[in-house]
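worker-03 picked up job from queue 'complexes'. Input manifest follows; two sequence lines, order preserved.
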Amino acid sequence: MPIHQWAGITTMALSLWAMYASIQKAERLKRILLIAAVVSVTITGHYGASLTHGEDYLTSTFPSNKRITVDSPSDSLLSIKNVQLSQAQLQELNVQVRTILAHHCYKCHGPTKVKGELRLDSREFIMKGGKNGVVVVAGNPADSEIIQRVSLPRNHKDAMPEKGEGLSGKEIEWLRFWIREGAPWPEGKEKSLYRVASLAPRTPEIPPSSGAHVSPIDRFVNVYFNDHKTAWPQTIDDRTFIRRVYLDITGLLPAADSVDDFVGNTHTDKRGLLVARLLNRNDDYAQHWLTFWNDALRNDYSGTGYITGGRSGITAWLYKSLKQNKPYNTFVRELISPSKESKGFIEGIKWRGTINSSQRTEMQAAQNVSQVLLGLNIKCASCHDSFISDWKLEEAYAFANIFSDTILEINRCDKPTGKFAGREILFKELGKINPQSVTEDRLKQLADFLVRPEDGRLYRTLVNRIWAQVMGRGIVEPVDVMDNVPWSQDLLDWLAADFVASGYNIKDLIYKILTSETYQLPSVTVQEAEMITAQDYVFGGMLRRRLTAEQFSDAVSLAIQPVYPDSLVVSKLLPEMLSVSMPFARASLVKNDPFLTALGRPNRETVSTSRTSQANLLQALELTNGTLFNQTVKRGALYFKQTHPDATVLVEQVYRNALGRLPNEDERKIADRTLGKSPSEDEIQDFLWAITLHPEFQLIY
Amino acid sequence: MKHRVNRRDFIRTSGAAALASWAAGAPVASLLGSCRDGSFSKTSSADTVILLWMAGGMAHTETFDPKKFTPFEKGMGADKVLSTFDALPTAIDGIKFSEGLQSIGRVMDKGTLIRSYVAADMGHILHSRHQYHWHTCYEPPQTVAAPHIGAWIAKELGPKNPVIPAFIDIGQRFTVGEAEELKAFHTAGFLGNEFGPFYIPDPSQGLESVRPPVGMDATRFERRNQLYNDLISKSPVAEIASDYQKESLRRSMEQAYRLLNSPEAKAFDLSQEPKEIYDVYNTGRFGLGCLMARRLTEQGARFISVTTEYEPFMGFDTHENGHTRMVGMKKMIDGPVAQLIRDLDERGLLDRTLVVLASEFSRDMMVEGRPGLKVLEQVDQPDVLSDLKFYGMHRHFTDGGSILMFGGGIRKGLVYGQTADERPCKTISKPVKIAELHQTIYHALGIPPESQYEIEKRPFYTTPDGKGEPILELLNTGKNTAGLT
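worker-03 finished. Artifact:
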């Protein structure tokens, strides 16, 4: 555009000068100026044509102009001339065009916003055009307004899209090609623009074992490692292993003696036996995993809604379910088709007053069941047709209607539409809900359909969540977006299929993961947090994690002194037998407080399926001068002072309690320098504090 | 993630995103699917925001928008009473404030008075729900946890002084009724704890929050930190001491130590203030909160909220004895607010500090909700006032309300909007909605209106769908159309 503009101005200047020369009878000058003006007008014209016809308008018809690029496997399509496109090619072209339109145009010319009376989200709308007439002239890109507008320079007032970056040259080329081909649109159902994970279960064959790496998980990972030219590192030592499995199964630190016993144990399958033994500590297991499920099912002991009866807790049910290791299909069935004890999850949170339609409790149920159980986000689609998937507003409402006594009026962006959806499950292949049944029966039907073995998605979502909990990252990430590409489809599919085959047994799944060599690889880390969820992530072992708020609190309780008094345990919400089966007031069983909040416990107003692993200032302040934490450490100092008069023994005991090892020489020296022979309570307190803030204490590595 | 992100915004937000996002569904800055029109390019007129929160519903007719005064008489009709106080002149010609707010009245030439705030319709009134809406711009419940405006500002701009937490929340205790509902919006929500509030429930104890633990002197505090660093450096598990989690832990610890040791921490120590100034502010926790806000502003705070504190049926939440209670509430706010404005002004800080005084909605003696959209009444208000305790604004009124704004580029001496002089005393010109107010604040801070983060693959804006235009008329840079006196 600037060249076109300046060349035009130059042409005019030259012409005026030539006219002046002519008046002055300066013939020689006039001739030169006229020639220059002709050149200039040619340049102007050329760049003008480039603007309206594309930069390649001169050369695009040359036979040698077939572009071969490697940008996209389908770019070769662009080079096709005068040949009837095949159905497959048409599909491919259609996907390209719709992707471009979706990316750049839908937000102003789509279902939620129709600027200039123009929509570009279906063939019908595109060909109809907008307020200013047609935008696509089939067969004639140059005359098509859409091409003209997207080709304008970005600062031109008519340039499209109005905001953000414009289309790339390649994208414009695709649109032009499509129009030149007659703006074809394939018949029948449109191919999705988005990756959709398959619903059906799949049982991949377990790869052969090479002798090493025997367990099925390891065999799949072995294939993955071979593909990625990764060598198997040496597995972790016993101390690291016992700390890991204790924290992952029970959320507790192993006692110092248990560590020593384990290291000294010579049994060949001692690791497997340990995992099995820990999994059998049913209360410890339940008290640890309660945290994960409380977050995911947004169950809390205090929170909004309780004050006006707009919310029910499911703590007792959840605790019992975990303690019994309730088969996951039953677990899900009881959440969706609930008893009084488990109804809190689908009943959601009701605030007093009127609620936006997309936040109604029935819609909350639809959203949370999708997200937590199916790894599927329909929050967008509960307000308008989704921009990030094929889910439609109507489908979200049809799903929500299953939970609703009455059929909800569809609201689009909080405006009533006067339309109503039926009652249908999101994945219709799972079964047909009888829309006439009463709610209770409908929920039963829904629960039965969702837990069918055919619902591979439900089980993939679960195994991926458990994997992420103990490995630091899911096979698919984010764990709520199961349509993303797993780093090993075979491993994910096998785990899910095996989970179903083993009777929906979560502990069995954990056992299989924790006894695999894969779990026992040295931990790895990333430079930046975003790399964890990056789609090109390469698996190389467990990702180092920080202790959760609850794990940290419990670790302090065990290694130093209990953080919470027993009186703070929410006993009334728990099954009766609990008081006897608890080593100390575990953080998972107390109400949220500033200490736990600072360390990352969410407020459970919304479902939450992952926690941050990074530290921040507010957290550091809470640990540095927070009352609860510092008082705990102070009590610990008093305890150690009374029980360990010898400073050397004290230091050793603290190291063993907290880090599962003895201090090395350097550490002894530092401790000795600080504590001396008979340390004061203050000195002990500071030493304990430094140990609990130690990365080796704070991380699962 | 592959979205079109304009480069300016990308540069602006990618640093913050890099700090913030970690695991599944972590927010990522993006411009995906923006429904907003127009572009944004401007410099800021404010660096710091102080929100003075009149918790519990402050009646506009009893404060900054007085109507006809009807003194109490036994047996009077309730419908006759529009205001229970006399109206007195302010620094703005022709503008009067309800009796008891003369000090604020005297500084009104330094700020703008909005008389046309209109709260949302959310049915049967629940204070915390309206407060949630006011502070986050989103009506609860929400499918993702909505951030407090202070958290948005902390996220977008970061701390002004690295050792002062970017979002400081003074005066609200969470041991009161509706505490859980209050907690639901005193949060950074999906932006992450890092941007959440630093609480100082009681400003007279503020120093406690930023000094070494009780009983630990500076030397010992320093020695403890040294021990910590020494032990880490000698840990045999050296490789785990080099990754980003550990880095973030150490960085945060250093930051905490810096704050607790810094000269800036003295800002939290109100005993350093000259007695005569301290006494002006000392009307209780709110007044001292204003003093702390000023001291923190001097040291480079970013966002400070000071509240009269919400507790059901306390403070401005007058369900009876409205008149009598208002006398006390005015005493609580009048001196400190005026002094805060004067102090900031004298120190040259008011130019870049935006002070906003607001409440979740107003009150009226007759109307619950708004005219034509009355909601379930919560107060038995007799038609005939047999007792002084019935004399006052006891119902929740959402169709009018006053907001004061000072400094940070806000026009001086402007009166914006108007309510009717007869009941219902509702907004009759230039209604101001919460999204517009938020966008005005963001505008002053130079935060683009379409600011958003992507959470769970969808955009979440500072105001719903990025809607709500900043009210440029309130700002010095805006067009000069009305109301200046």
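worker-03 released lock.
Residues 59-73 of chain A have pLDDT under 50 and may be disordered.
Chain A touches chain B through 101 residues (CB under 8 Å).
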